[in-house]
Amino acid sequence: MGAYPLEPLVTVREEAVDEALRELAERVRAREEAEHELASARAAEEAAAQGAGAVEAREALALESGVLKAGDLAQRGAFQRGAEARAARLRAATEAAATLVDARRGSEAEARERVALRKAEAEAVARDRERFTKREAHKAASREEEAAEEAWRVEPARRPP
Questions:
Q1: Contact, 41 vs 93, CB < 8 A?
Q2: Do 12 and 122 contact (CB within 8 A), yes or no?
C-alpha cells in the first residue's frame, strides 16, 4: 500500500489546530482576568457607596440632633464632593473594565471561530486520508485476488483433485 501523498498537509493542519487551541486558551485566560478585574471594580464601587452612605447617615443623624456646627457642615460638603469624585472615578473604572470584558469576549469568540475552522480543515484532510487508505486497501485486495486467479490458471497440475 502506498504512503498518503498529503501526509505533510495532515501534519500542518494538526499543528494549525494546536496553535488555534493555544490562542483560544490565551484568550479565555485574558477574558477571565478581565472579568475578575470587573468584579473587583464593581466591589470597590459598591464598598465606596456603602461607606459613603454610612458616613452620610451618621452625619445626618448628628445634624438632626444638633451636634454638628457650621464648620462641620462645611467639612460635610467637602466630604460629599470628595465622595462624589471618588464614586465617579470608580464608576469610570468599572465602565472601563466592562468595556474590556466585552472586547475580550469578542476576541475569544473570534478565537473559537478560528479553532472551528482549523478543525474543519484538519478533518477534511483526515477524511481524504481515510478514503485514500480504503482505496489503497481495495487495490491491494484486488491485486491479491488477481494474483490468486492467475496462479490458479497457470498451475492446473497443482490443484487439489
A1: yes
A2: no
Please state, in angstroms and rounded to a whole number, the distance separating the CA atoms of residues 28 and 143.
53
Give residue limits of the domains in the chain: 7-121
Q: ∠75-71-90 over CA atoms, to 5°? A: 5
Is this model's pTM higher than 0.85 or not? no
Question: pLDDT, tens digit, for every residue of 41-70?
Answer: 999 999 999 998 888 888 778 778 887 776
In DSSP notation, 62-75 reads: HHHHT---HHHHHH
C-alpha distances in Å from residue 50, one per residue of 95, 97, 98: 19, 21, 21
Backbone angles phi, psi at 67, to 5 degrees: -75, -35
Report the alpha-carbon distance of residue 28 to residue 46 in Å, rounded.
27
